[in-house]
Amino acid sequence: MPGEPGDDTRSRILRTALDLFAEHGYQRTSLRQIAERLRLTKTAILYHFPTKEHLLTALVEPLLTDLEGLLGAADRLAPERARWAVVEGWVDTMLTHRRPLGMLFHDLALMTRGDTYHRLMRVMMRANELAAGPDAGLPERVRAVQAIAMCSDPIVFFLDVPDEVLRARMLDGVRRLWEGSYAGAEPAGGGAPGAGPATRRRPGRPRAMSPEQVGLARRLHATGTHSVDEIAARLGVSRATVYRHLDRDAAE
Questions:
Q1: Which of 3, 45, 53, 122 would be 7's cystine partner, CB 3.0–4.6 Å?
Q2: Are residues 154 and 90 in the same domain?
């Protein structure tokens, strides 16, 4: 298997293991198969990864490191800003690690005997706490757990949906879950909400789109293959909302 600039044996092993796990599944992939794909000896693989479980742990490590960094940054924010920083950061981190997360989703239980599992549980519990906010009651804590799940599960169940579309839909789902429940304005394009009083939105489709949705709407419209009705249906907004942003393009 040819290397890449700045590549090393350990990185090649991890990349190849992920490819083979995707093709055959973790259980049906052996260290010998990984070695053969790389034209290495099994001993060379064992030098870097004593067991196949060590490979799985190493593939999940970057995800855990990024999530821990996200929570560390959110801990330094005011509660209202921390909540949305965690939610949006969680989505973005999951999307960044989308492929290994999707491939390894059904094998995460194999890590329950090690420190990685306990780290993952600590990360999830802290994310739930930050999303719920200080002095949260049971309703807020339940919503927080639901919100974090909404920012995780779709990543592995909708692998064919583009990142920007899935991100917009997941964040919209969280906003709908929390609509009217918490103080603070809705986040706009990856930023945390302000500290002003809550404003209850009218029922119906959202009247605004995130920057990601705006960019997608403009690209779809530019191709000439999608009608405004189709774009609105895909993004879950009204025709008027799509027209408003397209009209803004024409005026610029």
A1: 3
A2: yes
Same domain? 40 vs 66: no
Say how many residues make up the chain: 252
In this structure, the answer to whether residues 34 and 128 fall within a common structural domain is: no
The three-state (H, E, C) secondary structure of 28-96, written as one string: CCCHHHHHHHHCCCHHHHHHHCCCHHHHHHHHHHHHHHHHHHHHHHHCCCCHHHHHHHHHHHHHHHHHH
What is the residue-level pLDDT of the chain in tens, covering all 252 positions? 444 444 589 999 999 998 898 788 788 899 999 999 999 999 999 999 999 888 888 888 899 999 999 999 999 999 989 999 999 999 999 999 887 777 666 565 555 556 777 888 899 999 999 999 999 999 999 999 999 999 988 988 888 899 999 999 999 999 889 875 543 434 434 444 433 333 333 344 455 677 778 888 887 787 777 777 778 777 777 777 887 877 665 444
Domain containing 183: what range? Answer: 60-187
The pTM (predicted TM-score) of the whole model is 0.65
Residues 22 and 131 in one domain: no
Residue with tokens 């605004």: 208
The answer to whether position 102 is within a domain reads yes
- Residue 180 and residue 152 share a domain: yes
Total number of domains in the chain: 3
